[in-house]
Structures are given as C-alpha cells and as structure tokens.
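Appendix B. Chain record.
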Amino acid sequence: MNTDRGISMRREGGLALVTLDRPAALNALTLEMIELLDGWLSGWADDPGVRVAAIEGAGGRAFCAGGDVRALHEAGRRGDDLVRRFYAREYRLNYRIKTFPKPFIAFMDGIAMGGGVGVSVHGSHRIATERSLFAMPEAQIGLFTDVGATWFLPRCPGRIGFYLGLTGTRIGAADMLLAGLATHGMESRRWPDLVEALALAEPADVSAIIERHAAAPDGPAVLPERREGIDRCFAAPTVEAILAALDGEESAWTGEAAAAMRRASPTSLKVTLAALRGAARLDFAEALRMEYRLSQHFMRGRDFFEGVRAAVIDKDRQPRWSPGHLSDLGEGDVAGYFAPLGEPDLTFEEGKSP
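Structure tokens predicted for this chain:
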C-alpha cells in the first residue's frame, strides 16, 4: 500500500515497513502522517500476518527532523484547532509505539530530532548509523522536550539526558548507544539486507538477526570525556545554578553548552528542567499526559511562535523571548505551565478526545 501523503507502507513477508517520505522537508511529520502511522500500527497489533514493524526515512539525509512546526505556527496564529489535535495524536502515537506488542524497528539513519525521536526511540529496536544525528533542540524554538522525552531523557545514564535536553546538543551514533537512545549500530548500506532478513523473521529471532548485521559505528563518542562534568554541572537544582556551574568549568564544551542555553527561551529552559525532574517519578503514560498539558500552555503563549519565526520563517536567528531573562520567571510562572487546562486530559483510549 502506497500513499502520496508523505508516508508510505509496504509489506514484505511478515514485515510491515513504513517510509517517511518528505525528503525536501527532512521527513517532518504532518498530522496526516501521524494519523496514518497510528492507524497502521493499530491494525498490525492484531494482524497475524504482521510479525515485525519497521520505520525508515526517505532521501538519505534525514530519518525525521521533527514535527511540521511551520504548519503549527500558521495554525496557532489563526486559532486553528490543529495545535490541539496534532499534539494529542502525536503523543498517542508515541504511546502506541512504546506499547506495540511486536518488534518495532527504527532505522535512525540521518537526522533524528524532536518528533522524529518520538517515532523511533520508543521502539523495541533502534538502529543508529554512521549518518545518524540525534538532538532535542526544542528550547531553541521556544518549546520543551516532548514526544516522551521528559520520560526517556531522565533515564539516560547520569545527567546526560538533562544535558541533551537543555542544550540541544547534537550527538552521533556512538553517543546514542552510550546514552541508551539506540540499541544497535549498523552501516547504512546493510539496511536492505536486514530488511530482507526481517521479512522472513519470527519475532523471537529479531534481536539475533539485527546483531548479525550490527557493527560498531564510525566516529568517536564525545560523551565519555564529558560525563564527569555533565553529571556535576547538570545536577544543579536550577537553570541559573547549571549555568553558573558550566561557567565555572574550563573546557570548550561547557562554554558551548552555556552559550546554547543562553540563546534558548528562558521559559523553555525552566519548564523543561522542571518537567525532566518531575517525569523521573512518572510512568510513560503519565509523562505524556503532563506533556500534553505543557504543549497546550505553550501554544497559548508567545515564545514558540517567536522561536519558529526566527528559526524557520524569517531565519534571522534573533528570537525576542518574552520574558527575556531567567530572572523574570518565578516558580509560580513555571508552575502555571503544569496546571490543568480546563479541558479533558490526554487519554489513550480509542475513540476518546483529546
């Protein structure tokens, strides 16, 4: 079955293979793509003919660079309900992938950011290649680390997840494996061979089959040499204290981390830190419900729209955050983002809204 809607699916033996197919947009997710993928997975869960599901990106440059933030920006400006429906459906899809009862393999070849992480990192098997590039840069566009990142980032070793979430730092395959974001490394050229093998595989054999195709990724890991400083600096209790700790270090990477944080939305930084701390005590469904509340509060605010304007629309890279300084945000301001919406919370029951 193929579509011309930015996503396609084909069956090969017992394998159902999804291709994200918007290469000019780095395979960014639209609502229609999310709905199609969610519907396919719902059907495959009970389909005895589907033994394994997998997802890839078209074009060779990106697996998926995130959600279609330009569409969300336009919808929010005109008061369109897309900003509610998109996040509700996206987070439900993240939950479906996390709870999918069969092997779900994500071929994270190329850029995997934001929403692209949400449709990959929750799968049972995540393959990184020599072209993989992972990042959660939401604070740089006035948002927060969502798509389940509030749940998985605090569960990375030490404070690595806090470092990645607050700075938007990009890492390659070796570091993705060290952080637990990928389960296997593989040369990208081996993917067609693996697809052929998976088409004949039984679910119990998937891990062993992937292992036979796996290889140590090219490129050095940078996290090991930074790990001690990451754990020390990002254990600080506030954004201000993290920045002070980074400023007190004498290394290039800490300077880059501090500079990246200072370019980000102050609101995004404080809300993200609070969410990462809070979700460490939540289960996955609870974390997604929290994220849905946060998403809708951000859609009612200003910084997301300003961040997308500066990064995607005008591309002047000069966002004017409001408020513009960390000192202008009190605990009550941050707590307001976690408050009930005055509407139903996100549910994972079929046919219910949101």
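Further analysis of this model is presented in Appendix C.
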